[in-house]
Amino acid sequence: MDSREIIPDMSDISLLYPSSESERMTSHGVQAHLSSDTIKQLEIDYLIDLRTSDIGDYFTCDSDTIRYRQETFEDMAANPELSSILNKMIPFLNDITELRQLGSDGSSADNYLYSIAEVELYSSLMEMLKSELLPIAPSLKSTAFRKFADRINTLTESDYYKEVNERLNELTSRVREIKSITIGVNLDAGMRAEKAGVLSVNNEPFKSGDLLNKMLRLDFKKDDMTCIAPLVPFKKTQTENSQIAMANAFNGALTDIYRQSIRSWKKVIQHYVLENTDFLIKMMPEIEFVTKASELIGKLKDVGCPLCTPDMKKMYEKKFSASGLCNPVVALKLNTETVPNDFTFDENGMIYVLTGPNRGGKSVITCAVGIAFAMAQLGLPVCAESCEISPVDMIFTHFPTGGEDTIDKGRLGEECSRLSMIFEEVTEYSLVLLDESLSSTGSFEGAYIASEVLEGFSLVKCRGIFSTHLHDLAAAVDSVNTATGPCGGVRVDNLVAAIDSGKRNFKIRREKPDGRSYARDIAEKYGLSLDNILKKIHRGENSK
Questions:
Q1: Domain boundary assignment for the chain
Q2: 30: which strand partners?
Q3: What sign does the CA torsion over 69, 71, 75, 78 have?
Q4: With contact defined as beta carbons under 8 Å apart, do 371 and 44 qualify?
Q5: Which run of H or of E encompasses 284?
Q6: Span 306-513 CATH architecture
């Protein structure tokens, strides 16, 4: 084979990155990062559970990369067979990887056989892609899949690929035809073995037999394939070391016979197959990500969750506006549609103080916003009817770790320490999500520290949500804006988890909280309004 044929560059084939440079690309000089803590607290690992990579590795703030992935997932949605094709690739690639590991530890003869097996797997994989991917290639629109299909077409239609298959058939037939070898042994005058070697390689196994049988049958005709006496009681009584020594002797003899074949075959491996399988093996983590992400999208559609491709804006614009935003984790856990909400960061509110009753939807909407950013920056659709997003560099979460509802100075210190760490890394392009932070202390102390924290984030100019039951903090929003406005801080605004007639409706409203109204609704619900109390008292008096 002519190994000088130019092998096309495979390094730029990716389902997730438009180029190798874009994988390392930053936006506005910052590198996007999604920590494992944030992934767990937003339950993104519940949505997409990866085994071969960390989902945070795919979080990006590069708009070109995000749009590239959006096209990929749109193709996956329009052509469901793509998921099946990608999943079929995995066993082939796993087997090729395992064969390479075995081949690196084996003998020359083993390497020869492993090389043949690897090329067989490569050929089978290419034929599968040729028969299943190429027929749907005309319907593919994404750059990733069109480039992938074009590369498979180029490879499978090349003269070099055809020659590889011809050589493969030739070599595998030669190997598979080997059923036995004939060994010759020279003896010295004392009938001791002096020299031994392979006389022939045969395409049929030898037959058992012995000299006495031949004599009794008077069968002395030449029969090269009948054994008249075993060389050793092979394997039955041999030690493991003896068996290894015998196998190595046979393999060494076969290696000498096929030395030239091995040399030429290694050229094929080094100059063609390794190159062509490497780019596919490197795609394995991407394949797992896109197939599992596509599964997630299908599940969300099944439970009636709205999905849209977000309109990605420039990072410096700091846009976020979602209509009909839902929390996909809640939707999947409840296996039903969830209450949608509209949510916007704008010049009048880049940071929100979100108050309302317990179990009224505060944590749900806080997480929904964070998940929307994460899904958008992974290149996925967002759970909303419509959405526009400027990407963030990092998503910080400060959620309860358990037990913060008691007055515990040690726990308060731990909360303050985690908040302090956020301030060490947060930038104006970050998203900060605080859920019941500083709830481990009294309302006066908590509101005081929280207002200081709120002013700090305003001056950083990031976007954020502070979900809290500290109504004093909500009341302090105007004073925070008064303090930070002259210094260039972003504006803080209020959100309220609504309650009507004592019932939670899980709708989030942009308005100032009315603590008395909320308390009045709760009192009405449990019959503790003054009117209800008086009725109960008078009813008791009348019954006497």
A1: 63-176+240-302, 306-513, 516-544
A2: 27
A3: positive
A4: yes
A5: helix 284-302
A6: 3-Layer(aba) Sandwich (3.40)
Distances (CA, A) of 241 to 248, 302, 313: 10, 60, 68
What is d(CA 393, CA 421) in angstroms, rounded to the nearest whole number?
A: 16
pLDDT digits (tens, 9 = 90+) for 344-362: 999 999 999 998 877 778 9
What angle is formed at CA 468 by the lines to CA 467 and CA 472, rounded to 5 degrees?
A: 130
Strands 492-500 and 503-509 turn out to be: antiparallel
Torsion angle, alpha carbons of 143, 144, 146, 149, to 10: 170
Those residues whose C-beta lies under 8 Å from the C-beta of residue 268, and which sit 6 or more positions away, are 1, 3, 119, 164, 167
Write out pLDDT tens, residues 351-397: 999 988 777 789 999 999 999 999 999 999 999 999 999 999 999 99
Of 42, 538, 87, 438, which is closest to residue 294 (Cα–Cα)? 87
**Cβ atoms of residues 161 and 124 within 8 Å:** no
Contact criterion met (CB below 8 Å) for 341 and 465: no
The single residue listed with the structure tokens 């979460």 is: 397
One-letter identity of residue 112: Y
